């Protein structure tokens, strides 16, 4: 009993040892081994059960046989060729367990029906051989040993039954299954393995001890005569399986070490292992030696501090908690030849050959950094000239401005543009044009000093900043020196090319207060050189800058006025000589954001220069016609209204059609619209202006020449135009009575107009003396503050309702004493003015 208890304890300990080794493994074989050994342990524990009843004794024998059969089946199923396929496992388990259990059941409990065992034994073994052939094919090395075992077992069992010894047939059942395991293990694992050899021997001895045990018990031998030592082969099997697991783990570890050494030594990235305290190398691979210019043996004898740049601080501390520390950093290493290479290094704390160590994986990024540097250079520089582009130059400009602020000096921005550069490309080709740009770059760089900066900010534009520059006119002298560089032709290949440059400049602190203003004002100054033509250098002073800003603000007001109806039309009366109302002139007004009026002399030229005058003029035509219809519907007696038309409007191909469409939409007769044009817009021969004038004149619209005398008119050309009125410019009227004034000019204009059968309107009449002089010279119509200022639409409606002649401030004949009297000269009927509009 004591020996049995010791064996049970040993079996339990082996079970827990197998269980602890199986944990964490995904291999089904080890689980089947653990299940099989648990059944063996349970069988050993069952030996403590010693019943006295014969029936219970048979149940005990059946219980022993079943546990042994199931344990043997579990070990069979652990074979890899079976365990990999679920269906194969089920078939094998049924074929191995069912015939064996049926045989044991019949022998133990139905001994009178032993004839049932004959077909059971034959069919079971035939099926086993067929299944074996299906799994192993016709390969003799696998088929022959197992087939022979099944054949001999079947013969033994049939012979035992024929000799009326069923207990010997029963003893053969577990022995056969255990011998199957011995054959499978000998084929699956090498017999040179001590664990496998012990396992195979254990299965063979187990089969023998199982056969002896069952045979002795069935022959009536008492339990005391069955040696307990017959259970020892089972322990050999368990120990052999444990040794197999350990051997496989050891083999796996060796394979892992070989793989690690292969990966470490053949890794394309530099790898090294070193002592984090002494920085001595413990292992290095070929890639790390190659990248540093050493052999593996040479690098192995060095320390990490020998190859790391002195500026790089190495970390030697290990984590006191024992956890792996990951270190990532950019490092610079020194090659054997002394050159510097850039590396990204990632290091981990590890255990290497039983000691604390650190493994480092490095990547040589020198080429990547060089490529990134080249890409950054290309991003920030012009590839043709090598100069900084606009973003890079702006950064240098900021640096120069900060230095000027700190040092109390000045700085300036100069923008240069090559005049007619397109002609150089057209005449000489783009290759020569590129050469011109390079030569200009070279010349400009020779004129610069150390703190100065230059950049190519456009296809034909260069921008220069003078850093720490002197204030006043000295900086202008330096800038003009840049232009003198191009007094002589530039030699490119075999060509001598004259290059003309325009320059705009702004300086800090005289002209601008920050870098944005400096660059903006210098660019504006360059634009002014294009406008003025003759000047190739302009410095934009603070006054000019403010004026340019004001113009930009007014341009914005014009655009907003077009979008949100911010314009307003005022009307100024035009009188006949007798004081009656002859017509009105429409004058455009623009309100500022604070409600004040902006002078037309400011916003009209801006609208013409930007092209906004075309939609503005269209709005005026619509507004005047709308107002005429409103007065007409209110029952007022309307008069013709003069509308100023820009030179840009009159040359529009659709101008005449658009105007007639507006008149038709508001149902206004063409005779109530009078168009005023300047001399310059209608004098060129063959212009679209003349075509539109002729089309509109045929529809009944009258024309007048505004500000006559200020331009260059051809009398022959004027005679050909459909013009009914000449308007004398207000500047002539204002200086008409001055000593050496413009009285002869005004008289000549009036006489010339009458000789051409054209009426005359005098603008800007502000005094009774001017009116008297104009009247005496035969002027037809009058307009000015002497009669009325320009008024809004409601004021104009009030003028239309006044009595005829009430706008004339002169009531009585003009006396010599200068009293307010009306001139007595009657106007000839042909010049009464009634036919002019």
Question: Could you name the key traits of this structure?
Answer:
837 residues; alpha/beta; 9-stranded mixed β-sheet; 30 helices; disordered C terminus
Please provide a written account of the structure.
- With 837 residues, this protein is of the alpha/beta class.
- The strands form 5 sheets. Strands 13, 14, 15, 16, 17, 18, 19, 20 and 21 form a 9-stranded mixed β-sheet that branches. It has a 5-stranded antiparallel β-sheet with strand order 2-1-5-4-3, with helices on both faces.
- Residues 221-226 and 812-835 have low confidence and may be disordered.
- Helix 5 packs antiparallel against helix 6 and helix 19 (542-564) crosses helix 20.
Set down the secondary structure blueprint.
Layout (H helix, E strand, L loop, with lengths): L1 H21 L5 H19 L7 H24 L2 H4 L2 H24 L7 H20 L3 H23 L3 H23 L5 H25 L13 H35 L4 E4 L6 E4 L1 H7 L3 H5 L25 E9 L5 E13 L2 E10 L1 H15 L9 H18 L2 E9 L2 H8 L1 H17 L6 E6 L2 E9 L3 H12 L5 E3 L2 E3 L3 E8 L6 H18 L4 E3 L2 H23 L2 E9 L5 E11 L5 E2 L1 H11 L2 H21 L7 E4 L2 H4 L4 H12 L6 E6 H4 L5 H11 L3 E7 L6 H6 L4 E4 L1 H5 L8 H13 L3 E4 L5 H9 L4 E2 L10 H8 L11 E2 L7 E2 L15
Helix pairs in contact: 1-2, 1-10, 2-3, 3-5, 3-8, 5-6, 5-8, 6-7, 7-8, 8-9, 9-10, 15-16, 19-20, 21-23
- Percentage of residues in DSSP E strands: 15-25%
Total of DSSP H or I helical runs spanning 4+ residues: 30
Largest sheet geometry:
9 strands, mixed
The pLDDT mean sits at 82
End-to-end C-alpha gap: 146 Å
Question: How helical, in percent, are the residues?
Answer: 40-55%
Class of secondary structure makeup = alpha/beta
**Molecular shape:** elongated
Low-confidence stretches: 221-226, 812-835
Query: What is the radius of gyration computed over CA atoms, rounded to a whole number of angstroms?
Result: 58 Å
DSSP summary, beta strand count: 23
